[in-house]
Write a structure and sequence with these properties.
Helix content: 25-40%
CATH class of the largest domain: Alpha Beta
Radius of gyration: 28 Å
Number of strands: 17
Oligomer: single chain
Bound molecules: thiamine diphosphate
Number of domains: 4
CATH topology of the largest domain: Rossmann fold
Shape: globular
Largest sheet: 7 strands, mixed
Distance between the termini: 69 Å
């Protein structure tokens, strides 16, 4: 195996050129085999095997820098920088991450996970090198999907003024997770097919031909002009016009071509964009055929491409998906918006049934929110379906464009809570904190699949900003018999006793049921409240419970700071309620990748830890 001879950065340079293709094949086999067992991002990684090899052949790591966008496609880079062994523990707790991590290797120049950051970060490296007098090459790799994100354009705008070499590799596979969307995607397509060049040329020439007598002479003159108008006819004008040299398109699976172009690009003393064409899923038929499905996968059979575990239970996204389709029939003003995640957020069915009311805006969360605000102001009922961690991007838009105007935008906040193997960048553990402190915002956290459906129904009749947060994974089926209509700002008391009151938000109700059972078995009296509304706080409920409870235990799958628990603590203190408040929440830390159940234990929001804390408190009280 050639791969065995590659144990650290730059080892690849010892291989003779004729072995490059063999290595590429070995890498693909390795990735397919490992990801089929661990799960992970397959299609994007298979697409950049040659591109990564070419960059490693041209660059000197770690002195030179590669900045990956999103970072989900960095597996070959990890393999070429001495992390082959780590793949057995890929995305597992304590194992290597599925994304670049500076703490993992000095060849990982920048941590990523969210899209469209690589040009900004790369430019930062370039300017730092200039100031510090370091002579190195910096390459930012960005996908055509990531190039739909606004930050990428802010960075390009800035990079155009750069007076040093800065290479931007545009990895164009025509796909985001789903098919890429928008005007830039169309433009790249025309570059790919040479349409811009040909159309423009034909257009100019035909136009000139129509000018009597002088037309032909002018055409002749243009033909002889080396620069000037001829520049108008070259591809990549969008970038060239900004002052960024455009090179390409280049076959992204031809290592010879790639290394040649990258070496050319290194010679320039300003920003240069190398347009590389790749195929998502390259070399593995099921992934080539179904690149969306193989973007991120659970363990699968290599032979059939099918997942090893069959899904039997619906997850929360499925419940959202079915509910929104049902509601769309009744409410013609309902429109749905996604930032490049029609599959992940469950809007595919809606898109197919109501194409006219469906909007995939690209990886553009900020725009998605203000776009929704515009529609709401114009009388529509927009639902922005988005993952908790990606909504972080749109904080100002939520305040400035939605909440100040008190517009009825519904935020369907999926993946709220711990998400598992994608790790720090993807954990949805801040949304309660960042949303619950915005005036006019309202937050509903349904406890099970039935309540999510009810919450969406409630949202359609509600006139103001409303976020509904629900976690990743199987939609809980418990407490079905406890289904009651949602009333604005009201919690639901599931079991009323005295002494200890568990106040559980959303996903934590399931945990609270277990905690309660165990405490009861040990002789305690325990009330259980399904909080439902994290915002506004149900103050009446707190007042009433404080009359016959000595301990409130707030439970949320969110960091402590600024979240539900802190609000309850503050309220009880300000109003001098005679209760002690214990907060169960995540510590104010970034939580790494790993199995969710394990992570819950690690951060102390599992049933056992909570029960232990409550018992300890009660014993201490008894002791006086
Ligand atoms: C801000 C943000 N929104 C959404 C995502 C989810 N996401 C991960 S990869 C991806 C598509 C990226 O497409 P592209 O940049 O073309 O890379 P490819 O996978 O095609 O190589 C999306 C939407 C994200 N990572 N960050």
């Amino acid at each position: 195996m050639l791969l065995d001879s590659i144990n650290k950065a730059n080892d690849i340079k010892n291989l003779p050129e004729e072995e490059y293709d063999i290595l590429a094949q070995e890498i693909r086999d390795f990735l397919i085999h490992k990801i089929s067992m661990s799960g992970g991002h397959l299609a994007s990684n298979l697409g950049v095997v040659e591109l990564t090899m070419a960059m490693h052949l041209v660059l000197n790591l770690p002195e030179d820098k590669i900045i990956w966008d999103v970072g989900h496609q960095s597996y070959t880079h990890k393999l070429l920088t001495g992390r082959r062994e780590g793949f057995d523990e890929l995305r597992k707790y304590g194992g290597i991450s599925g994304f670049p991590k500076r703490r993992e290797s000095n060849c990982d120049a920048f941590d990523t996970g969210h899209s469209s950051t690589s040009i900004s970060a790369g430019l930062g490296y370039v300017e730092a090198s200039r100031i510090r007098g370091i002579d190195n090459t910096v390459i930012s790799v960005i996908g055509d999907g990531a190039l739909t994100g606004g930050m990428a354009y802010e960075a390009l705008n800035n990079a155009s003024q750069c007076s040093r070499n800065f290479i931007i590799v545009l990895n164009d596979n025509e796909m985001s997770i789903s098919r890429n969307v928008g005007g830039m995607s169309g433009y790249l397509n025309s570059l790919r097919t040479g349409e811009v060049y040909n159309d423009l040329k034909a257009g100019v020439m035909n136009g000139l031909k129509r000018i009597p007598v002088y037309g032909d002479k002018m055409i002749e003159k243009i033909r002889k002009t080396k620069s000037g108008i001829k520049q108008l006819l070259i591809p990549g004008m969008f970038f060239e016009d900004m002052g960024i040299t455009y090179l390409g398109p280049v076959d992204g699976h031809d290592i010879g071509q790639l290394t040649r172009v990258l070496r050319e690009a290194q010679k320039l003393d300003h920003a240069v964009l190398v347009h590389v064409l790749t195929k998502k899923g390259k070399g593995y038929e099921p992934a080539e055929k179904h690149p969306s499905r193989f973007h991120g996968v659970e363990p699968f059979s290599v032979e059939t491409g099918l997942p090893l575990k069959k899904k039997t239970e619906p997850n929360y996204t499925d419940v959202f998906s079915a509910s929104i389709v049902r509601l769309a029939e009744k409410y013609p003003e309902l429109v749905a918006i996604t930032a490049a995640m029609p599959d992940g957020t469950g809007l595919k069915k809606f898109r197919d049934l109501y194409p006219n009311r469906f909007f995939d805006v690209g990886i553009a969360e900020e725009h998605a929110v203000t776009f929704a605000a515009g529609m709401a102001a114009a009388g529509m009922k927009p639902v922005v379906a988005v993952y908790s961690s990606f909504l972080q991007r749109a904080y100002d838009q939520i305040i400035h464009d939605v909440c100040i105007q008190n517009l009825p935008v519904i935020f369907a906040v999926d993946r709220a809570g711990l998400v598992g193997s994608d790790g720090e960048t993807h954990q949805g553990i801040f949304d309660l904190s960042y949303l619950a402190n915005i005036p006019n915002m309202n937050i509903l956290a349904p406890m099970n699949r039935y309540e999510l459906a009810d919450a969406l129904k409630f949202a359609m009749e509600f006139n103001g900003p409303l976020a509904i947060r629900y976690p990743r994974g199987t939609a809980w089926d418990g407490l079905k018999e406890m289904r009651t209509p949602i009333e604005y700002g009201k919690s639901q008391i599931l079991y009323k006793e005295r002494g200890i009151a568990l106040l559980a938000a959303g996903s934590m109700v399931k945990t609270a049921v277990k905690v309660r059972e165990n405490l009861k078995a040990a002789g305690f009296c325990v009330t259980l409240v399904n909080v439902r509304f994290v915002l506004p706080l149900d103050q009446d409920c707190l007042d009433r419970l404080s009359q016959d409870h000595e301990l409130f235990v707030t439970m949320e799958e969110n960091v402590l700071n600024g979240g539900f628990g802190m609000k309850v603590t503050r309220y009880t203190q300000e109003n001098e309620l005679p209760v002690h408040v214990m907060n169960v929440a995540l510590p104010n830390l970034y939580v790494e990748h790993g199995n969710v159940e394990l992570l819950k234990k690690e951060v102390g929001i599992d049933a056992e830890t909570i029960e232990h804390r409550i018992r300890e408190y009660m014993e201490e009280r008894k002791r006086g």
